[in-house]
Amino acid sequence: MHFHKILFATDFSLTSESALEFATALARDSGALLIIAHIEEMPMPYAGGEMYFAQPEYPNPEVRKMLEAVVPADKSVKFEHRLVMGTAADDIVRVAEEEKADLLVIGTHGRTGLMRVLMGSVAESVMRLAKCPVLTVKQANHVPE
Length: 145
Fold this sequence. Notes:
Elements: E1 5-9, H1 14-30, E2 33-40, E3 46-48, E4 51-53, H2 61-68, E5 79-85, H3 88-98, E6 103-108, H4 113-119, H5 122-129, E7 134-138
Parallel strand pairs: 1-2, 1-6, 2-5, 6-7
Antiparallel strand pairs: 3-4
Helix pairs in contact: 3-5
């Protein structure tokens, strides 16, 4: 397959780091542009007693800095960053459509059973909603020697 644009969605986890390796290799081998995206979910404002806790600045400069630190290890790969405020699965799919991505790469934590029910699965939702192919990458349980 030949790709022109690959969207890689990161949550800054070790699983995302593993997925970035795959996205980088595919972008390098296809000469594709790698779009590195993070969806920043809007925290809900809340009040506690007489105190009101306001929402942080958007885009959060710390999150922006973390996103800009996510770069392909291969310096020959062209890439861009996207920081979006929204809901993870829905907005990953929306960005992929807006960018006309040929492939979406996302890490999965591989939760099952009750943990999946309680925490949900962004990767599963992305696979159901995306119009382009989705590559999910699960981090290996052990580090090769």
